[in-house]
Specification:
single chain; 154 residues; mainly alpha; Helicase, Ruva Protein, domain 3; 2 domains; 8 helices; elongated; cell membrane; T4SS-coupling_protein
Length: 154
């Protein structure tokens, strides 16, 4: 019954969202030229584009709050600082003349030298948090970022 419905939808040229838990429909109906797979465990999955979901600084701040949750009774400084670095970096990337890509965002935040991140964030509220003058603190903040951002590699 559902296969007939999917065929009918295809024939009409309509769009559909199909939840395919067992991958039964994907193997039969998937067309790479028109279809989008949203499954992080499928190599054909479309990558998330941070900059399609956020345009302004408050958008990036909300995104940071969703990606880096506050938890427990611990000191909120670490999570708040990680959020500030994430949102400032992503927003600054949206404003510079270089491609805004997830790979570049991850590289800047997670693998670049502290000095490079600090230079990129110069003039933002996050600059002091990525300063080589507070190296141990900045490295601790980067470790919080790594915990929550590593899933963005996929």
């Amino acid at each position: 019954m559902i296969r007939k419905l999917v065929r009918w939808i295809r024939e009409r040229g309509d769009k559909a969202i199909i939840y395919d838990k067992g991958c039964v429909f994907t193997c039969k109906f998937y067309r790479p030229e028109t279809d989008v797979i949203l499954n992080p465990f499928d190599a054909r999955c479309a990558n998330w584009d941070v900059w399609c979901d956020a345009k302004d600084a408050p958008d990036f701040e909300n995104m940071a709050a969703a990606l880096i949750p506050q938890h427990g009774d611990g000191d909120p400084f670490w999570v708040d600082s990680a959020r500030t670095i994430f949102s400032s970096t992503a927003f600054r990337m949206s404003q510079d003349n270089k491609p805004a890509t997830t790979a570049r965002l991850l590289s800047l935040i997670l693998t670049s030298e502290l000095e490079a991140l600090g230079n990129f964030l110069e003039g933002t509220e996050a600059a002091a948090l990525a300063s080589k003058d507070i190296k141990k603190t900045a490295i601790s903040i980067k470790s919080v970022l790594a915990t929550y951002m590593k899933s963005m590699r996929f």
